[in-house]
């Protein structure tokens, strides 16, 4: 090898036609990791192996095949650019380290693919969210999600599951896409009590669960990983459908790439899970609101209810008057008390888990009323998220009776089983009844009859004088002067009239809300 090649900035090997190494420069030694004296050694023993072995293939024919290629060499953990050229003395092999360039190209390509995938995901999710707004049933919601995700080019298939009636087991509700053998393996794993799928963990935790790559994730059942490998499925994401404290179901999404779900995709799918969970609840509530008939379920409740435990501690009778949501996992419960003082109620509440705060509202000789701030998973939140509305709720010395209202096509058995299992409640009766519908005219007539003439006059005058605007167009004194009454008298009539207005609007929903 002449000095020009020996000191060249690229690696050079001089090789005879039969593949024997005749010479090598220092750059080539460094590039291929050659140690010791390699002169006279076969090229196959000196040059590391790649998956394709393109270099050795160039020496297999009757004559040398001149070629250039770039291949990855696992032993070196680098990419090499190799050129084979015939010379007067045999063959020259030129070697360059192209690892940095290849990594840069891969990074750029990865970003390009990720950008394209993100754009597709956002488009698909936007379409799903638009359709979910108008969905009227669980089946429609499941089919919308599966169809939209399973029929895209970036995912192999998607399926939606929900808890089986009467147990904690998941069952496949809908699926779409090229499911292959993987979805069958998932279904079998759901029936196997010795394994836990991604989707089951998502339902248990209420959080996204991912496996990338699928076959190497120890938390994925072996049967699912094996089936996924055979189908070319390498990534999976389980998205819980969550609303409040309740998980309605789960979406399983399977893709061919080993990094199909980025952090940005996680955020997008969390939004999908929240909106889908809300859509399930909204569909149930819509059905209840528009239904001409309802199903009433009656439950006997024990210590699974916070209010029941409080009644036991007081050995008194409690009645839930109304409930107002307070954040994601808390409620303001307004409870009337009979047979205990407010001091006794305050003392008992401090020892009951789930009651964060208590405020006395009114006290009488026989009891009074209190506001409880209750936090955590309770029958009230469960019944609401499952599509029910509590019609009546009374508690006496540790036991209670709750009457729940559902739309006639509601999943009565599912709700009865879920509530009974999780909150120590016994389903004791079901009754179908017609619900009277009040028209707007009837509502106004009833309200007109409830208000006294002075209350109507005070409300109308204050309303037209912009007393209720912000900022006010008239002060209380100005309105009172127009009516030739005192300010205190005006406020008395306004409060009484406003109370009747609120009673007419809130009485049904508040008193039939839900209970702990």
Automatic annotation (TrEMBL):
It comes from Haloferax lucentense (strain DSM 14919 / JCM 9276 / NCIMB 13854 / Aa 2.2). Residues 136-280 form the GAF domain. It holds the Pfam family BAT. Gene3D superfamilies: 3.30.450.40, PAS domain. Residues 451-502 form the HTH bat-type domain. InterPro entries: BAT_GAF/HTH-assoc, GAF, GAF-like_dom_sf, HTH_bacterioopsin, PAS_4. This is Bacterio-opsin activator-like protein. Residues 292-445 form the Bacterioopsin transcriptional activator GAF and HTH associated domain. It comes from the Archaea.
């Amino acid at each position: 090898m002449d000095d020009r090649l020996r000191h060249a900035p690229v690696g050079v090997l001089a090789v005879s036609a039969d593949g024997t190494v005749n010479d090598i420069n220092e750059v080539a030694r460094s590039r291929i990791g050659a140690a010791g004296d390699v002169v006279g050694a076969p090229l196959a023993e000196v040059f590391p192996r790649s998956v394709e072995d393109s270099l050795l293939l160039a020496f297999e024919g009757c004559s040398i095949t001149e070629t250039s290629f770039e291949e990855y060499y696992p032993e070196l953990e680098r990419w090499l650019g190799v050129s084979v050229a015939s010379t007067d003395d045999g063959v020259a092999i030129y070697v360059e380290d192209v690892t940095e360039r290849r990594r840069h190209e891969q990074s750029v390509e990865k970003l390009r693919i990720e950008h394209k995938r993100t754009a597709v995901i956002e488009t698909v999710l936007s379409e799903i969210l638009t359709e979910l707004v108008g969905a009227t049933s669980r089946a429609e919601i499941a089919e919308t999600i599966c169809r939209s995700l399973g029929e895209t080019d970036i995912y192999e298939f998607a399926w939606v599951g929900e808890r089986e009636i009467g147990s904690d087991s998941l069952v496949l509700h809908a699926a779409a896409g090229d499911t292959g053998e993987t979805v069958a393996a998932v279904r079998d794993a759901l029936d196997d009590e010795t394994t836990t799928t991604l989707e089951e963990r998502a339902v248990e935790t209420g959080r996204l669960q991912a496996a990338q790559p699928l076959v190497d994730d120890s938390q994925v059942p072996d049967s699912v990983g094996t089936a996924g490998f055979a189908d070319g499925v390498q990534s999976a994401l389980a998205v819980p459908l969550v609303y409040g404290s309740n998980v309605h179901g789960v979406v399983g999404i399977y893709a061919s790439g080993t990094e199909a779900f980025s952090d940005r995709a996680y955020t997008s799918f969390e939004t999908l899970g929240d909106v889908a969970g809300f859509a399930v609840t909204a569909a149930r509530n819509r059905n209840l609101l528009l239904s001409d008939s309802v199903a009433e379920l009656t439950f006997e409740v024990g210590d699974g209810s916070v209010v029941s435990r409080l009644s036991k501690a007081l050995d008194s009778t409690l009645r839930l008057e109304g409930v107002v949501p307070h954040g994601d996992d808390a409620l303001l419960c307004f409870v009337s008390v009979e047979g205990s003082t407010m001091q006794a109620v305050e003392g008992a509440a401090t020892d009951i888990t789930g009651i964060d705060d208590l405020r006395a509202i009114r006290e009488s000789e026989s009891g009074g009323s209190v506001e409880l701030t209750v936090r955590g998973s309770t029958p009230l939140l469960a019944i609401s998220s499952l599509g029910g509305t509590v019609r009546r709720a009374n508690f006496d010395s540790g036991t209670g009776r709750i009457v729940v209202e559902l739309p006639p096509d509601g999943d009565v058995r599912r709700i009865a089983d879920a509530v009974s299992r999780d909150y120590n409640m016994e389903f004791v009766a079901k009754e179908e009844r017609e619900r009277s519908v009040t028209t707007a005219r009837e509502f106004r007539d009833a309200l007109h009859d409830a208000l006294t003439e002075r209350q109507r006059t005070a409300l109308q005058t204050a309303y037209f004088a912009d007393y209720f605007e912000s900022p006010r167009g008239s002060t209380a004194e100005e309105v009172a002067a127009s009516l030739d009454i005192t300010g205190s008298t005006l406020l008395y009539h306004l409060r009484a009239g406003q109370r009747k207005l609120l009673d007419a609007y809130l009485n049904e929903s508040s008193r039939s809300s839900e209970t702990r």
